[in-house]
Design a protein that fits this description.
The chain is of the alpha/beta class. The chain folds into two domains: 289 residues, Alpha/Beta hydrolase fold, catalytic domain (Rossmann fold, 3-Layer(aba) Sandwich), CATH 3.40.50; 161 residues, no CATH class. Helix content is 32%, strand content 13%. Strands 3-4-6-8-7-9-10-11-12-13-14 form an eleven-stranded mixed sheet, with helices on both faces. Strand 13 and strand 14 form a beta hairpin. Helix 12 packs parallel to helix 14 and helix 14 crosses helix 17. The longest helix is centred in the C-terminal third of the chain and has 25 residues.
Length: 566
């Protein structure tokens, strides 16, 4: 019997050693063997309707060429076993692990938009020749980086091969909620690869964070007469939006192997990134690619240019390139040096945006919501209390007439009524900042919440926390919520410390918990016992500071007057 027991022990030890050797040969993360059998980050996702059909793939081109079919090994949904390795439909990617979060940087989700692809819809990325080591920071898309839009968030060096994404995922767990970030920058600047947007802190709360790079400026949104003429019924302009949609489709195909649930995707963005979220909510090509949306400082979701407006701006831009008189404008633009393209943007001083091309976008999200056609995507929307201070920083005091003219452009004959609401504000420059906050962000967000709330569950908020360390001492300004949400103080320009101060850290904790809770279950958490949905009959804004409270009105009640005056 003793001999038999000895044999059993020898066989057991030999088997264990064989398993360990096998794991090492398979490149399994050695830390993985120290983890419990069950995930330490439990997935918190709603039940998926099994009868729900899969989203239709995006059609980004009418090319008659047959699609490239890439053969990859079949796999079950879920991870390969090593959290640092993930399988995609173009090959395996290898990430890096730190503090329980695995990071994959600069994964191509589409081909480099160069040459004939420069202004074209995104094309599929080529298969990897070998494992793709995703440990290097990605490049920004070409842009002018002297804009105020990148004042807080540093932008890496640019390169045309920029249609790439970053993924931050817990080292354990499957079926986790997915949060897809679209950076802001006025449609002209910014990068998903900015260190300020490192999603590790959010991922540590049990979500998969995906930051998407997309074409900006003319490369992402140019519309000219020739572009419209040669579209032949296809979409035009909106290339940055199409880039994002291609990334969302990539996520649908691949996020399972990064631990994410393709049926529980939340898109979120700030500034123009939030306006892009509005675009996806309104675009038929993005239907089914996400389930929830968060709009930070996104306004009323009505910022969409007509073809005439977009073309007029494009022609002004084109006049600065030297291509306006070319035999083929498109051919000239495809191979014009990038520096000349960016110089045209700087010299023309025009702004780009989404365009109602009739294919990718037909109407704005606000227009669809007003007629009950937007759908029932759960929505979290809000603003910061001092948005406008960012846009007036460094500008001169206004005369009374200049302030009146500014309001007149927005509201016409209701100027006196609205100006009377700002009498308690000391200077005209401060009044101008408050008016920008109201007209473009706070009251505009209220307007969209009211329209969308007829079909969808909508939660509204306003960040009122005025940090003692806000860059440039601008209070709860445009972008201050992003600093707190991601929590990467050391990567923010002009933030005076390498980490958030204690008060900022408390608000950061609240935002991260609330946002990830909404992504997980469609209800924002964050320690607030009662955050009711927004209803026209009972407006409810969560005011977020060191203490939170529910208010029926924001901006000292001006929004009701402002929205009624339009």
């Amino acid at each position: 019997m003793r001999f038999l027991a000895f044999v059993v022990r020898v066989v057991f030890v030999t088997s264990v050693l064989a398993l360990v050797a096998s794991a090492c040969a398979a490149d399994v993360d050695p830390e993985l063997t120290l983890l419990p059998a069950e995930s330490t980050v439990p997935p918190t996702v709603p039940e998926v309707d099994e009868e729900q059909s899969d989203p239709e793939p995006i059609s980004t081109t009418t090319s008659t060429e047959p699609p490239v079919v890439t053969t990859v090994p079949e796999r079950e949904e879920g991870r390969t076993g090593n959290p640092r390795r993930a399988m995609t439909d173009v090959g395996d990617v290898l990430g890096t692990r730190s503090d329980g979060v695995v990071t994959f940087r600069s994964i191509p989700y589409a081909a480099a938009p160069e040459g004939s692809l420069r202004f074209a819809p995104p094309e599929p990325a080529a298969p990897f020749d070998d494992d793709f080591t995703a440990d290097r920071p990605g490049a920004a898309c070409p842009q002018n980086t002297d804009s105020e839009a990148v004042q807080f968030f540093p932008v890496p060096d640019a390169d045309a091969d920029c249609l790439r994404l970053d993924i931050f995922t817990p080292a354990t767990g499957d079926g986790l909620p997915v949060m897809v970030w679209f950076h802001g920058g006025g449609f002209a600047t910014g990068s998903a690869h900015s260190e300020a947007f490192d999603g590790s802190a959010l991922a540590a709360r049990g979500v998969v964070v995906v930051n998407v790079n997309y074409r900006v400026d003319a490369l992402g949104f140019l519309v000219t007469e020739e572009i419209v003429r040669e579209a032949n019924g296809d979409g035009f302009g909106n290339r940055g939006l199409q880039d994002q949609a291609a990334a969302l489709a990539w996520i649908q195909r691949n996020v399972g192997d990064f631990g994410g649930d393709a049926a529980n995707v939340t898109i979120f963005g700030q500034g123009s990134g939030a306006e892009m979220v509005c675009g996806h909510m309104a675009s038929p090509q993005s239907k089914g690619l996400f389930q929830k949306a968060i709009l930070q400082s996104g306004g009323a979701c009505d910022s969409i240019l007509s073809i005439e407006e977009a073309t007029d701006r494009g022609q002004q831009w084109l006049a600065e390139t030297g291509c306006a008189e070319a035999l083929s404008v498109a051919g000239c633009l495809q191979f014009l040096p990038t520096g000349d393209l960016l110089a045209a943007s700087a010299n023309s001083d025009i702004t780009f945006g989404l365009v109602a091309d009739g294919v990718i976008l037909d109407r704005s999200a606000l227009s669809l919501a007003a007629t009950g056609e937007l759908g029932d995507v759960p929505l979290l929307i809000g603003s910061t209390a001092d948005e406008g201070s960012f846009f007036t920083e460094g500008t001169s005091e206004l005369t009374d007439q200049e302030l009146r003219d500014l309001v007149l452009v927005e509201l016409g004959g209701n100027t006196d009524l609205l100006l009377s609401q700002y009498e308690g504000i000391e200077t005209n420059l401060e009044k101008r900042a408050a008016f920008i906050t109201d007209s473009q962000f706070a009251c505009a967000s209220d307007q969209f919440a009211s329209a969308a709330g007829d079909e969808a569950v909508v939660y509204t908020y306003q960040l009122t926390h005025r940090s003692s360390d806000t860059p440039l001492s601008l209070g709860a300004t445009h972008g201050s919520d992003v600093i707190l949400l991601f929590g990467n103080a050391d990567a923010v320009n002009d933030y005076p410390a390498d980490q958030l101060n204690p008060d900022d850290a408390l608000v950061s904790e609240f935002l991260q918990t609330a946002w990830t809770s909404f992504a997980s279950e469609g209800v924002p958490g964050g320690g607030t016992a009662d955050w009711p949905p927004y209803l026209d009959s009972s407006p409810a804004h969560l005011l977020i500071g060191l203490e939170t409270s529910i208010s029926a009105a924001i901006q000292d009640g001006r929004c009701e007057i402002f929205n009624a005056a339009q």
